[in-house]
Amino acid sequence: MNISLVLSQKLHIISQFMLNNMLKFEAKSMRYLRYMVLILLLTPTENLCKAVESVKPNTLIKVLIVDGFSNHDWVHTTKLICGILEKTGRFSVDVATCPANANDPAFATFCPKFSNYDVIIPNCNNLGNKGEWPVAMRKDFVKFVRKGGGVYIFHSANNSFADWDDYNQIIGLGWRDTKFPSIMIGSDGSVQRIPAGEGKSTSHGQRTDRVVHRIGNDPIHDGMPKTWMAAMIEVYTYPRGPANKINVLSWAEDPDAKKNWPVEWTVTYGKGRVYNSTFGHVWAKEINPAGMRCAGFQTIMIRTLQWLAKRPVDFPIPADFPGETKTKLYSLAGENIALLTADFTSPFNGKDLTGWCYRSKKGEETLFETFDGKNESKDGRFTGRDGVLTVNPWDEAKGPHFATVWTTLDYQGDFSFTIEFRAGVNADSGIFLRGTQLQCRDYLVAGPYKSLKNYKPQDWNKIEVVVKDNIAYCTCNGEILEEALKIPVTGPFGLEADRGQMEYRNILIKALK
């Protein structure tokens, strides 16, 4: 036996052990260190190798996001998830983008190695869209979960793959028709099953802030309040699926029908753990989505991934975790956060209509017709040049009577807003504050504020708006227009075209800390 070689090998292994556990040794005495080194020197080399391999440093939770298709903005959603997770220093995040078209040459062989990860986050939705997972990928995904892998079904991923039996079992509940049973929550907080065929297919009302109610206690929510306000969530009415081996974690009231429905639930599938919720909605071109900024959602997502990976759930509950009456929003990594600056910003560059658009609805999807680089909208109702955004009189030959030009960005949080306007005789326009209209007219003629004493007809006037907790205080030249105008949590600014000519300038927005 080459004693020198054996000793050299042992010393190398010991050095690795010490490097991997440096923090532990720093907390121990030198006597303990010498004792450990002596034991390691006396241990047979082959046993020593196994011992060192079993003592690994704390490792990151390995997460794979699978995206590639959705009626939601899956590209933006993936980016935001990565930003939230990576800033914690607790995760290693990879992304696998599935070809959306089965005719793509890369589709047939696309199959991420799920076994390399602790948790998979599907961020795909083929409801009403083209998009599938290859057969081999489906089989590997099911195998991964059955053998003990974790799955975080992200928002509309529970809309996907309605014809895939294993996937339905994995998600427990999702966006399904009445051939599946459903679950609702009774007035006493009890979980009640609705048989298949009863009630309606899955749907949801408006996105809004809702109070979330915990059911019981679980490792994910341990230490959180029993009720808290979630920002801009969808409450699914009649969520449906096999609902086998399911545990409902929380519920919220539907804002329309006033019934209680599950918001979060977990499923046991084989040896694997699955988490599913309606949190995390992101539409196309939705900047700084409140649902992703929500402190409750971010905290729960991080703690959920720890639980799914079968690690200690030790991510701390922040001191500013929301209570029952008010949301708490965090910033998002890499976002163009228009209202998180101490300085005034302007959505109008004074030169053209860049940053403005027409918005329309197609089902739940918002469509944008942008005017970037253009001085005039296609119907001639709006022009931007020489520091003035002008609302022009209606030309019947060019388009419909009413039109509204919107900012392409949505805005959130408390803010102050100022705008100067000059109205033609009897002109009728309007300023939309995140969707709620404040009338802007030739007030003394067209109303509704005919008693104003400081208003200057056919001259420049100044409107100032201060918004706190979604309540707007509005003045014109220092006189009150509205003392408590309620506006949505999030949304764009808009200018309406109705009657006559209206000119706007010096449009400024500032965040209120």
Annotation field: number of helices? 10
Instruction: State the shape.
Output: elongated
Work out the oligomeric state of the chains in this entry: single chain
Number of strands: 28
Strand order of the largest sheet: 2-1-3-4-13-12-11-8-9
Rg computed from alpha carbons, rounded to a whole number of angstroms: 29 Å
Provide a quick synopsis of the model:
This protein has helices spanning 3-20, 22-26, 30-42, 45-54, 74-86, 135-146, 165-171, 290-293, 295-308, 443-446, and strands spanning 61-67, 91-97, 119-122, 150-153, 182-185, 191-194, 203-204, 208-214, 227-233, 236-237, 246-253, 260-269, 272-277, 356-362, 365-370, 382-385, 388-391, 403-407, 411-412, 415-423, 428-433, 436-441, 461-468, 471-476, 479-486, 490-491, 493-499, 502-511.
What does the secondary structure layout of this molecule look like, with pairings?
Elements: H1 3-20, H2 22-26, H3 30-42, H4 45-54, E1 61-67, H5 74-86, E2 91-97, E3 119-122, H6 135-146, E4 150-153, H7 165-171, E5 182-185, E6 191-194, E7 203-204, E8 208-214, E9 227-233, E10 236-237, E11 246-253, E12 260-269, E13 272-277, H8 290-293, H9 295-308, E14 356-362, E15 365-370, E16 382-385, E17 388-391, E18 403-407, E19 411-412, E20 415-423, E21 428-433, E22 436-441, H10 443-446, E23 461-468, E24 471-476, E25 479-486, E26 490-491, E27 493-499, E28 502-511
Parallel strand pairs: 1-2, 1-3, 3-4, 4-13
Antiparallel strand pairs: 5-6, 7-10, 8-9, 8-11, 11-12, 12-13, 14-15, 14-18, 16-17, 17-28, 18-27, 19-26, 20-23, 20-28, 21-22, 21-27, 23-24, 24-25
